[in-house]
Specification:
The chain has a single domain, classed as NAD(P)-binding Rossmann-like Domain (Rossmann fold, 3-Layer(aba) Sandwich). It is 43% helix and 13% strand. The protein has 8 helices and 8 strands, in the order βαβαβαβαβαβααββα. Helix 1 packs parallel to helix 2. The longest helix has 22 residues. The protein is globular.
Length: 275
């Protein structure tokens, strides 16, 4: 995909790998829409993008722990943008961000499930009409090799909670959503894939977890960029990649009944089942 003039929305793009991807796509001529919570970091990024591209990006501030914020965010994008060629769902929190204790979102859901998965699930569905109108279009879900099967008897992990389990469950949920959505979008001109960009990148999230970084942001960013723009994945959908290599996710991702249960729950929790 020639990125010149393409409109790309990257969630969580004021820091880490999202920031790197935003800079690279802006330098390639894309109209980059950036998202985050911190306006100061967003302005620093906007200034750098303007320097490399000659055009200041549009910034959308939204807290993805609030489904109301996600809805408002999506509506602003729909109001502002006549087209949307690529959506990169990159925003997320790690296993130790905000501390190791179990926390809940503004809607009362387990925080990592809410931010890493439910917010993207809702955002993608709300922006699908614009993506379909801009075909060929792509959705990239930034997941992880860290995956834990969902216990449908305790999805919000009220018992035996650990941040690592919560994070890994949210990432497997993203992959399951990717597979389901690819089936729904067959023939639409919109593809969706997920990936583990790189292991323990040198990011705020990784450092907060206490892990020692072993990969660079550039390595992870380049893997994301491949799914955004490379021709060899233009017509491929519903896949999971480890870096730039196609891989297999946890077995539960390929369990159609588990995906059906997750989808039903997700539609209910986000209010989409009422539409």
């Amino acid at each position: 995909m020639n990125m010149a003039g393409k409109t790309v929305l990257i969630t969580g793009s004021t820091d880490g790998v999202g920031r790197y991807v935003a800079m690279k796509l802006a330098a390639a001529g894309a109209r980059v829409l950036i998202h985050g919570r911190d306006t100061k970091r967003a302005q620093v990024l906007a200034d750098e993008i303007k320097r490399v591209s000659g055009r200041e990006p549009m910034f959308y501030q939204a807290d993805l722990s609030s489904l109301a914020d996600v809805r408002e965010f999506a509506q602003l994008v729909l109001d502002d943008q006549e087209r949307l060629d690529v959506l990169v769902c990159n925003a997320g929190i790690g296993s130790q961000n905000e501390g190791p204790a179990r926390q809940t979102s503004k809607d009362g859901h387990e925080l990592r499930f809410a931010v890493n998965y439910l917010a993207g699930f809702l955002l993608v569905h709300l922006l699908l009409p614009r993506l379909k109108a801009s075909t060929p279009a792509r959705i990239v879900n930034v997941a992880s090799l860290g995956q834990h099967p969902i216990d449908f008897g305790d999805v919000m992990i009220t018992k035996n909670y650990s941040g690592a389990r919560a994070y890994a469950q949210s990432k497997l949920s993203q992959i399951m959503f990717t597979i389901d959505l690819a089936e729904e979008l067959q023939g639409s001109g919109v593809t969706v894939n997920s990936l583990h960009p790189a292991t323990y990148m040198n990011t705020t999230m990784v450092r907060a977890s206490g892990a020692t970084p072993i990969s660079t942001v550039e390595q992870g960013g380049d893997a994301i960029l491949r799914l955004v723009q490379d021709d060899d994945v233009a017509d491929r959908s519903g896949l999971f990649f480890d870096g730039k290599r196609e891989a297999r996710a946890h077995a539960q991702a390929y369990d159609a009944e588990a995906r059906r249960r997750l989808k039903a729950l997700s539609l209910k929790l986000t209010g989409l089942s009422d539409l």
